[in-house]
Amino acid sequence: MNKSHKNLKFPFPIMGLFCLKLNFLMFSIGGILPVNASTQTGVFNIIQSEENVEEWTGINKRLQAVGIKYCVIPLANINNLEDVGKQQVLFLPNVEKLTPVQAMVLKKWMNQGGRLIASGPVGNLSTPGVRQALRNMLGGYWGFNLNDAQELQPAKDNIQEWKNQKELFSQVWGAVMIPENSQTQIAAVWNYQNQPAAVLTTENSTFLGWRWGKDQDSHAQLDTAWLKTLVNSYLKLSTQKGVNPAANCPQSSVNTTTRKTLETSSTNISQTENKPRQINVSRVSIKPNQKPTQKKPIKQPSSVNANKKPAQKPTQKPNQKKPTKQPRSLTVQQSKPQSKPILRVTPQNFREEIDQLQEAVRWDIIPNSNQPIGSKDAIALRQELENLIGRVESANLAVLARSGNTRNSPALKGENTKASRETTNSSLEETLAQAREIAKNIPVLISQKNYAVARQQWLNAKRNLWQQFPINQYLAQPEVRAVWLDRGTIVNAGNEEGLKKIFDRLAKAGINTVFFETVNASYTIYPSEVAPQQNPLIKNWDPLASAVKLAHARGMELHAWVWTFAAGNSRHNQIIGVSSGYPGPVLATNPDWANYDQRGQMIPIGQTKPFLDPANPEVREYLLKLYAEIVTKYQVDGIQLDYIRYPFQDPFSGRTYGYGKAAREKFKQQTGVDPVNISPRQRDLWQKWTAFRTEQVNSFVTEVSQMLRQKRSSLILSVAVFPLAEYERVQKIQQHWEVWARRGDIDLIVPMTYALDTPRFQRLAQPWISSQKLGSTLLVPGIRLLSLPTVGAFDQIQLLRDLPVSGYALFAAENFNNELDQLLSNTQGKMKLSYTEPIPQRQPFRTAAFRFAALQQEWQFVGKNDEKLSKSVTTMANFQQHSKSLQNALNQLAAFPSASNLISARGELVRFQTQFKIWMGATAKENPYLVKVWENKLLTIERLLRYGERKVINANSGLTAR
Q1: pLDDT value at position 345?
Q2: DSSP state at residue 249
């Protein structure tokens, strides 16, 4: 039977200067292209995984309605190309975890002509490399969930036939889809603000922005219509009702009996969606020659499976000491028992959340690629090249000003010289001129569609500019130069002599602040009288005592870095030779302190750490006692709170957390509702539940801050935090550090702004650098050394030196190498000075005076060496007068900190800042980056004064820090 049809033209957003139309999906008015059965040449495969098995009843119902033969393949069975079979179409409904091997198989299969259909947050729980591969295959990724069901609509430019297929459009609960590149088309959008993408298509794939087969998210009729249309367009198959799996399925597919078993299991499971399950804790083995301690049962969270046998009980680790108080018994409302067990979720070797964030923000420029470059990307390329030129100029100016060199400064010359494009080992002047020329030419090359040439020239300019950083000369100003000294490096040191070598290395590199990993996975690095167990890899020495002594002897600060609510680590378990499911010594001793996800699991799916319940008063009391022990027993300079949050969640994906016994009881007392019975769709109640959990973290930070001040007012409290947007962060991990800053509870905010390149690093850090919500705290962005080239790390440091921040923190000591050691030693290492360089968090007023003196050196250098800039800097009568007055006021404040001197210095600074833009008006037209850097450095001084007011003036006068 023949029926004419038209190719549907899927539009995509104009992401660049050019728009490309691809015709590759074929639809009829009814969404089906019926053909003779004899034309059927194959079937499609559908993947069943751990994530979609709970939805399999709805998925199977829709598959039957589609009327096309199919094969069900368990994801675990896919290890090579043969496992996928010869079918032309593969469907991934809501599959969130794939291994690198499975991703490579899919890529190879698609390269051989396979067509991929996907739905839901595909790959979101996979490693970063897998997620990037999936983005390339699918043309985009699942961005973020919508808060409500929205109307699915055809994209604006679709042809009339597409708009008339009403069965493809209705209310759906989905997510905003993010196109990966300009070749991705948007087939459907949400009737929501700015009409974000709902369905993405490429030549070989279609990505649906909702969980296909999940009854709570979409209607069966709509799901069926989409799959029927897509598969039929690829295969041109006839349709039948009530089909069974096809006879020619690959060997990796499940047989009918297995599939029915899975369907039966999923039916029982789906009935309990969004309810916490019973915890399943692995048994912990006892090492030889150690006496097992008495077992203490882990009480189950009141949940499903109430009449099942209790789960296995972990033994307490050897040599554990119980915290002083015993947990109270809490009465928690019982949920209905279930007849079938759920899938066992065991700890797996997934990448850490921060790894995922780093990979998500990479900015890759592929050499020789002729893929089209959109207008936004073209602007970004030019802007980043101009910014890099500015950073190179700024770094060279700092060196020349410090040395007092009066020769002509190429960094201030603008565009007076142009170098030959063929020159590769050019001088600084020529390299800057060449880079400026390339920045100007990028839009021209792109307009001529010379995409590969544009990319190659950009990369060459970047490489040449990096070579012009003055990495052999000192250029640093007083700043926080911190490093995280990780547990692995401490353990490998072996003893104090080994640790001494590490501190010698850090001191030579100019590091002045060390975040020393003191509590990891509930194990202390030192012998504790509060914690149940010292790290078993530490033998016969006290690393914390040694570290404090070694740091102070070298003029460095030592801050105890502690894991707060993360209580265990399956990876660490492997290192110390215990079961991967062991929850850590604190939870093994006090199981009632545990937190749980909606399935009743301590460790959320796709993660590696169990968490303590912040709502439990005994948890809080234990942690406060532990931190008090650290600051009392050791002369540490501060405490850094890490994992000061809940684990990552995605409420609209059915992944929620926080159902500890204490939390459930406390919330029920406040609202009359057990949170296990709340759905994210109950907006008011859900927001109350989110606010409740967030406040548990907020109030604990306040308690820690108050305790530290009572012990020693000079102690610094810092926090290692995620740089996610405020709303997203509160919803996903209940970490609201703006509140901590506004209250004055913390001193340093250390956002983990980890990125593999400087543009994305700036994109992560800039919102917080510009934020007006951080009160009087100092911002110290984190830089991750892993996978960064040495000069790339320096580039990120230089960026921060040009922005209004007080320093940086390097993660981690284990990633230091000889090349980095040498670079840091050259550019910021300890010099033979007649004075001790101040550390901002300890001496903010002295730091401000030093930094302004360095600014004056730059202005004096400019006045002597650049004719245009000297007119602005030296010929204005008021400039030198105000500059001298401000320097005197800052010096007076540094020498004699008082409220009156602070008022005087602040007044001088405000007057200087007000006039500065007027003085630099002409200069800003010639060199806007340099003038902006100077403004940023003045803003840094302003923030140091604000911090000093709270930390020095108010603290000395006994005033509240808030």
Answers
A1: 33
A2: -
